[in-house]
Design brief:
InterPro entries: AAA+_ATPase, ABC_transporter-like_ATP-bd, ABC_transporter-like_CS, ABC_transpr_CbiO/EcfA_su, ECF_ABC_transporter_ATP-bd, P-loop_NTPase. The chain is of the alpha/beta class. It has one domain: P-loop containing nucleotide triphosphate hydrolases (Rossmann fold). The chain is built from 8 helices and 10 strands. The strands form 2 sheets. The chain has a 6-stranded mixed beta sheet, sandwiched between helices. Strand 9 and strand 10 form a beta hairpin. Helix 4 packs across helix 5. It is globular. The chain starts with a strand and ends in a 9-residue tail after the last helix. Bound molecules: adenosine-5'-triphosphate (ATP). Adenosine-5'-triphosphate (ATP) binds next to helix 1.
Length: about 240
């Protein structure tokens, strides 16, 4: 579904590129775990995949839509869930934020949104002002709104950061359910522990370069050299042990 070929990108005015020569494929319905230390280029790559920027060189094709050239179409088929929920929430209440995901006047919009709120344990907060939600609830609201748009590609930037253990488990359950329904997902993390058993493939970035790519089993032995901690089960020689 995704073919990235020799992607290079530099922010306007930046001295050096934030992505260099990034090449990978993601089959439809699979989960790619994108990892690397702070500043390695994960968010930048997600922005290109979301159609927010175009590569300076190389080509990115998502479901047959190519960038550079068709970023507006890419934006229509993917949903990016940002690390900072406050940058993403635009409604003043949960209801308003969820209903803004639909075109005006769409029949069934409220019913669909309420069902999604219930799925994400947000039903009792339907009329709550968004600033009264907890950090974890705000993250869930952003993900719920992203899914309301029925994206073909879900892009998640550090979905576990700042979440407590129960919220991490809840987030995992949502991502696992998406995977069960064959939604293509790219999940950026610096810590692999909460996600590795859900990942079909991995790309490791370091200083904007793709240094490793393959299945978790192919990549995990080499990741410490790039500042990424191996999952505990892998360190103990147990391979990848599912959480549940
Ligand atoms: N808007 C911008 N303008 C200029 N440089 C930027 C901009 N955004 C990011 N960068 C630079 O691009 C590089 C990659 O940053 P990016 O945010 O993509 O990394 P990251 O792996 O997502 O980091 P983190 O884990 O800290 O979120 C960094 O050197 C960063 O300083």
């Amino acid at each position: 579904m995704i073919h990235a070929r020799s992607l290079t990108f530099a922010y306007p005015g930046a001295g050096r590129p934030s992505l260099k020569n990034v090449t990978f494929d993601v089959p439809e319905g699979t989960v790619l775990c994108l990892c690397g230390v702070n500043g390695s280029g994960k968010s930048t790559l997600l922005s290109l995949l979301a159609g927010l920027y175009a590569p300076a060189s190389g080509t990115l094709t998502v479901a047959g839509i190519a960038s550079p050239g068709k970023e507006d179409k890419l934006r229509g088929l993917s949903a990016l869930v940002l690390q900072d929920a406050d940058l993403q929430i635009i409604g003043s209440t949960v209801a308003e934020d969820m209903l803004l995901a639909f075109p005006p006047g769409l029949t069934d919009a409220e019913e669909t949104a309420r069902d999604m709120a219930a799925r994400f344990d947000l039903a009792e907060h339907w009329h709550s002002p968004v600033h009264t939600l907890s950090y974890g609830q705000k993250r869930k609201l952003c993900l719920a709104v992203a899914l309301l748009a029925s994206p073909a590609l879900l892009l998640l930037d550090e979905p576990f950061s700042g979440l407590d253990y129960p919220a991490i488990r809840e987030m995992r359950a949502i991502l696992a359910n998406n995977r069960k329904h064959r939604l293509t997902q790219i999940i950026s993390v610096h810590d692999l522990e909460p996600v590795i058993d859900l990942a079909d493939s991995m790309v490791v970035l370091h200083q904007g370069e793709q240094v490793l790519a393959g299945t978790p089993q192919e990549v995990l032995d080499a990741i410490p050299a790039f500042g990424v901690r191996q999952p505990c089960s892998w360190q103990r020689g147990l391979g990848i042990v599912p959480w549940e």
